[in-house]
Specification:
About 45% of the residues lie in helices and about 30% in strands. The chain is of the alpha+beta class. The protein has one domain (about 1-85): Ribosomal Protein S5, domain 2. It has a four-stranded mixed β-sheet with strand order 1-2-4-3. The radius of gyration is 12 Å and the shape is globular.
């Protein structure tokens, strides 16, 4: 039940989602964590909730991605993890 999306390229983000648990836990690595950490975590949690995910561990390695990229990569990683569950 793990999904991965993104790259380690400049202006991108690598997101790894492990489904399960009682809450959404975000482990963020970013050189911009001090400035944008809370905003990135909020974008990840909102993306999870938009897909009705209430429990997951989300590892985020940010390389300067914009908000819409973070949301898209997170949703795609979740969908990848859900596809694994269906198999």
């Amino acid at each position: 039940m793990v999904g991965i999306c993104g790259t380690e390229e400049e202006s991108d983000v690598l997101v790894k989602v492990s489904l399960g648990g009682d809450e959404i836990v975000v482990n963020l690595t970013s050189r911009n964590k001090i400035l944008f950490g809370r905003h990135i975590e909020k974008a990840v949690k909102e993306s999870c909730k938009a897909l009705n995910i209430n429990g997951a561990v989300v590892e985020v390695k940010d390389f300067g991605a914009l908000d819409f990229v973070i949301r898209a990569r997170t949703k795609t990683a979740i969908k990848d993890a859900l596809r694994e569950v269906e198999l």
